[in-house]
């Protein structure tokens, strides 16, 4: 099967292509070079006047695992009020903030997304996360396994284990859970909450283990560096949502000591304490630090006004925030001496000063971080807003007058207390393609995604040009997944199944012996039943693995 | 799973016959007959060792109206009935993850109502969560953290037999606690004290199941510093409840548990809610978690898969191209007795005793081989049992761990997923 995409205007930042009119050829699943004149083109799409980009990649979106099911169970009203109605979708579904898995796949594809990564996979719950992602059609997926509140790691740190042993454990977890990266959430804090501690700063020690969050971040980022895992440690920093937390965020950057570190939903970690409300924007300080430290990347976690639900492993802060629950009901769960889960529904109000500031802070970070390769477009779905609000967010970033119009509609003090009104930057299509395609692919180490050169997997989104960028990005003319046309005029055309990105770092399998003994003594399942095999992924869970290379490095 | 083929011993096998899903079993297989040789309990032994009927037995054959037929005829007849049905009900739903996925795919295609056989018990918890949420914990947390456990109800040993052995009487904890010092409070008519190693640390508050909610609410009031206007609450002196409140406050990590399947009285969800709100309020100052126990016949499994695919665990309709949940309207037993459904597809792959409710509604039954229905359904198709006849996955009662199930013998029977797929192809 040979497909020709004719004369589209191509934005392919990974290959330096900025709005050039080009033809693209797809043979089966991949992009190929210009075929010889005697080869027959099976299908041709005339893309004159249309914008062509690689399929978009969301590197942080909560689409799989037990926490989303807890939220669905807690909030049947989300389903009731937001049924999925679209006759071109083969399966039914419901809800925007907690979409059923099938609907999530359709809606992502309908915006031109072809890959999405679940950032909070609890190792013990990894099977469920992969099952849910396997039931999210069209998208390729991947997960970041959560460490840093698990007894085994904290125990190793508290007894001064050598870095090599920590590396082996991290690598073993990546293999056993079929994940592509490691995330740490409120390092040590989720564990501390189980000992009834309600707050943990970066340099405080955890109960029982006596280790600091700083040491957890530093040892884990060292492990990922030495193992050669492409994606840096994905950090949900301490003190989420706490006014004044920008200092913790800056200190967390420092904890990496120059090693690569990704700070996730950084908007929630960029708060100062100035002004009458004792709540202010520290976006400038955070953006300045990102600009100055090239080892740091961040996704924003933009909030949008309206009803959503926050779900996080950070039980310490979710429990502290439960009085803000709207509607007034919430769930917190301690999980397997490994982690936790807190689900608190929330409604961001544009006339509420704090919520309106959160909105402005997120946009300030987008606009003040200079390098679009190191800042990523997320709403921390669904914590800041459902992922379906991405096209609206793109318009806010690409259209200054629209942004200023919106600023006038929210809490009146925000314009005075934020720099947003003075920020004239408008993201270009090229920059948007970096932030949503080339950038995420690069930081995840995916060599054949996020770009349109020969050899890339043919994940391609084609948009009709529209000055209203929201309209443009919410309704692609065509979307191809691995060379198959899956969306036409914004509607599902054909459904394909995705695969799972994983990494396979090398490690000393001697660690399995101590782990096996540890599982038998303390855990509720056997190590043999904890590990997920490739056969299980392909034949039972339903999402075969694709391995991204790791190149191990020696200690610095 | 490790398999020693010489003597047909399988190690580290997971059990699907109660919500604990213990995965440390050793199973011996001889001529298709299974026996647990290590770590079994009565429920698990019964589930694994139920004999497979001989190949020629009628309840190992597909049947139409009680007469043996070819599988293809049974599939075609099933597809015909489903095609002609105006309001099909998918009930039973005792199956694994793959079976649940196949069930939902077919239900979505033909617009069926979906209700698991254990929905009544499931709904008691779900309605409480939908109304006010909860704070819960999971089995490994309990095993390592608990120092005070409060059991509401008739005890947990009968329905989750190895709970105390594995999660309360365990020899050591991660944190070096002396597990023999753990305290147990039994509220209700429990006999669980026989199973606890140090009976001097047990406190009992006998009461009827209907009084559990009153006691939980009284405890909650006392936790919040309210005074009660009565000396006795469900026959228990207030002073004793105050003492318990103090113990809950002082505990390092207390756990409150119940099994919703035994709370079989009207509006028992309010009892569950009272327990949940008690737990939440203790957490204002100290740590306490709920641990809803129970589960059988793949109920947690079906609930999880259905929730991620449709938004709802059970008692929903897919008739209108969008999931529609109604815990009263879509109660399967009610739909059958009122004949509001015109066809029942009943699935019970784990338990031959869980047969379709007697009703005038015609039924297609996918039953564990050996199931003997009281009246012959329109179609009976014997199915393989997950974790015995084929591999698969099952969710534990805390809905966190998903255990892999193994194929332990070659019975030649097809899985629920395979049969539903084949029926779909006949549609």
Task: Characterise the protein shown here.
With 556 residues, chain A is an alpha/beta fold. Chain A has a domain at 56-96 and 115-445: TIM Barrel. Chain A is 34% helix and 22% strand. In chain A, the strands form 4 sheets. In chain A, strands 6, 7, 8, 9, 10, 11, 14, 18, 23 and 24 form a 10-stranded parallel β-sheet that branches. In chain A, strands 1, 2, 3, 4, 5, 19, 20, 21 and 22 form a 9-stranded mixed β-sheet that branches. Chain B has 427 residues and is of the alpha/beta class. Chain B has helices spanning 42-49, 71-84, 97-110, 119-132, 139-145, 163-167, 212-223, 238-250, 269-282, 299-310, 332-337, 416-426, and strands spanning 2-4, 9-13, 25-30, 33-38, 63-64, 67-68, 88-94, 113-114, 133-136, 148-152, 183-187, 202-205, 232-233, 236-237, 254-259, 288-293, 316-317, 324-325, 343-348, 363-368, 379-383, 392-395, 402-405. Chain B has a 9-stranded mixed β-sheet. Chain B has a 5-stranded parallel β-sheet with strand order 12-11-10-15-16, with helices on both faces. In chain B, β5 (63-64) and β6 (67-68) form a beta hairpin. The longest helix of chain B is centred in the N-terminal third of the chain and has 14 residues, at 71-84. The chains are: A alpha/beta (556), B alpha/beta (427).
- pLDDT averaged residue by residue of chain A: 97
- Give the termini distance of chain B in whole angstroms: 38 Å
Shape of chain B: globular
Extended strand count of chain B: 23
Shape of chain A: globular
Side by side, the strands of the main sheet of chain B go 6-5-21-20-19-7-8-17-18
Beta-strand percentage of chain A?
Answer: 15-25%
Biggest beta-sheet profile of chain A: 10 strands, parallel
Overall CATH architecture of the largest domain in chain B: 3-Layer(aba) Sandwich
Would you tell me the structural class of the helices and strands of chain B?
alpha/beta
Beta strand count of chain A: 24
Average pLDDT over all residues of chain B: 95
Distance between the termini of chain A: 48 Å
DSSP helical segment count of chain B: 12
Q: Over the alpha carbons, how many angstroms does the gyration radius of chain A reach?
A: 22 Å
Biggest interface between protein chains, with counts per chain?
A-B, 63 and 64 residues
Helix content of chain A: 25-40%
Q: List the domain count of chain B as a whole number.
A: 3
């Amino acid at each position: 099967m040979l497909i020709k995409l004719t004369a589209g205007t191509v934005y392919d930042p990974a290959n330096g292509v900025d709005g050039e009119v080009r033809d693209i050829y797809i043979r089966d699943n991949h992009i190929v070079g210009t075929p010889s004149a005697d080869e027959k083109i099976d299908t041709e799409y005339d893309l004159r006047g249309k914008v062509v980009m690689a399929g978009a990649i969301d590197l942080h979106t909560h689409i799989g695992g037990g926490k989303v099911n807890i939220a669905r169970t807690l909030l049947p009203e989300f389903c009731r009020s937001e049924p999925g109605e679209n006759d071109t979708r083969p399966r039914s579904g419901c809800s925007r903030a907690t979409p059923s898995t099938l609907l999530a796949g359709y809606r992502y594809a309908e915006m031109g997304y072809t890959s999405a990564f679940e950032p909070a996979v609890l190792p013990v719950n990894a099977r469920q996360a992969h099952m849910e992602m396997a039931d999210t059609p069209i998208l390729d997926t991947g997960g970041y396994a959560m460490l840093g509140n698990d007894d085994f790691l904290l125990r190793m740190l508290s007894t001064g284990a050598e870095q090599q042993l920590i590396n082996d454990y991290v690598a073993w977890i990546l293999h056993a859970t079929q994940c592509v990266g490691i995330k740490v959430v409120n390092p040590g804090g989720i564990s501390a909450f189980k000992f009834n501690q309600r707050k943990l700063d970066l340099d405080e020690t955890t109960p029982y283990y006596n280790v600091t969050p700083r040491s957890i971040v530093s040892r884990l980022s060292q492990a990922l560096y030495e193992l050669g895992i492409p994606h840096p440690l994905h950090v949900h920093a301490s003190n989420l949502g706490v006014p004044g937390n920008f200092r913790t965020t800056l200190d967390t950057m420092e904890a990496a000591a120059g090693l690569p570190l990704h700070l996730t939903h950084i908007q929630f970690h960029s708060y100062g304490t100035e002004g009458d409300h004792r709540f202010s924007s520290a976006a400038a300080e955070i953006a300045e630090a990102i600009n100055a430290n090239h080892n740091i990347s961040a996704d924003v976690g933009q909030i949008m006004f309206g009803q959503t639900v926050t779900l996080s492993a950070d039980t310490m802060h979710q429990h502290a925030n439960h009085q803000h629950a709207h509607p007034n009901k919430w769930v917190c769960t301690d999980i397997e001496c490994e982690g936790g889960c807190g689900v608190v529904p929330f409604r961001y109000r544009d006339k509420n000063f704090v919520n309106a500031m959160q909105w402005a802070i997120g946009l300030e970070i987008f606009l003040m971080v200079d390098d679009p390769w190191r800042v990523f477009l997320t709403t921390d779905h669904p914590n800041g807003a459902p992922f379906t609000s991405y096209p609206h967010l793109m318009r806010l970033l690409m259209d200054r007058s629209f942004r200023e119009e919106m600023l006038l509609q929210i809490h009146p003090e925000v314009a005075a207390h934020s720099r947003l009104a003075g920020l004239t930057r408008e993201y270009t299509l090229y920059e948007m393609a970096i932030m949503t395609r080339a950038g995420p692919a690069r930081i995840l180490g995916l060599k054949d995604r996020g770009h349109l050169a020969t050899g890339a997997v043919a994940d391609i989104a084609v948009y009709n040009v529209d000055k209203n960028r929201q309209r443009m990005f919410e309704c692609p003319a065509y979307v191809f997944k691995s060379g198959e046309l899956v969306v036409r005029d914004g509607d599902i055309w054909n459904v394909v199944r995705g695969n799972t990105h994983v990494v396979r770092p090398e490690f000393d399998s001697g660690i399995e012996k101590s782990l096996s003994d540890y599982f038998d003594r303390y855990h509720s399942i056997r190590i043999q039943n904890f590990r997920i095999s490739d056969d299980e992924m392909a034949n039972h869970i339903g999402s075969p693995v694709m391995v991204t290379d790791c190149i191990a490095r020696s200690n610095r | 799973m490790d398999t020693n083929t010489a003597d047909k011993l399988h190690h580290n096998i997971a059990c699907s016959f109660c919500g604990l899903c213990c995965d440390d079993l050793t199973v011996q297989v001889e001529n298709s007959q299974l026996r647990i040789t290590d770590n079994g309990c009565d429920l698990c032994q019964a589930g694994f060792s139920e004999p497979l009927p001989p190949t020629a037995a009628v309840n190992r054959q597909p049947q139409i109206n009680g007469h043996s037929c070819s599988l293809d005829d049974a599939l075609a007849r099933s597809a015909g009935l489903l095609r002609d049905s105006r309001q099909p009900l998918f009930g039973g739903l005792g199956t694994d993850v793959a079976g649940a996925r196949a069930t939902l795919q077919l239900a979505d295609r033909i617009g069926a109502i979906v209700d698991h056989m254990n929905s009544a018990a499931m709904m008691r918890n779900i309605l409480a969560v939908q109304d006010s949420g909860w704070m819960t914990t999971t089995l490994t947390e309990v095993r390592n953290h608990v120092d005070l456990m409060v059991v509401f109800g008739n005890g947990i040993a009968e329905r989750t037999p190895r709970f105390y052995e594995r999660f309360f009487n365990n020899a050591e904890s991660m944190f070096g606690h002396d597990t023999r010092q753990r305290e147990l409070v039994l509220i209700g008519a429990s006999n669980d004290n026989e199973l606890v190693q140090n009976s001097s640390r047990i406190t009992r508050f006998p009461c009827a199941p209907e009084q559990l909610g009153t006691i939980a609410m009284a405890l909650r009031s006392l936790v919040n510093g309210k005074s009660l206007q009565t000396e006795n609450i469900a026959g228990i002196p207030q002073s004793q409840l105050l003492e318990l409140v103090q113990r809950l406050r002082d505990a390092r990590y207390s756990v409150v548990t119940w099994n919703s399947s035994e709370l079989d009285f009207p509006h028992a969800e309010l009892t569950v809610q009272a327990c949940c709100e008690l737990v939440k309020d203790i957490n204002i100052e100290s740590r306490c978690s709920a641990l809803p126990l129970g589960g059988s016949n793949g109920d947690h499994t079906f609930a999880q898969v259905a929730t991620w695919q449709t938004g709802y665990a059970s008692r929903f309709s897919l008739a209108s191209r969008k999931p529609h949940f109604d815990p009263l309207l879509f109660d399967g037993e009610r739909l059958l007795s009122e004949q509001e459904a015109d066809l029942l597809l009943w699935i019970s792959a784990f338990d031959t005793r869980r047969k379709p409710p007697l009703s005038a509604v015609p039924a297609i039954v996918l039953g564990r081989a050996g199931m003997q229905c009281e009246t012959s359904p329109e179609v009976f198709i014997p199915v393989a049992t997950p974790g015995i006849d084929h591999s698969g996955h099952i969710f534990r009662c805390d809905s966190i761990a998903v255990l892999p199930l193994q194929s332990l013998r070659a019975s030649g029977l097809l899985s629920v997923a395979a049969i539903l797929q084949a029926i779909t192809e006949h549609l």
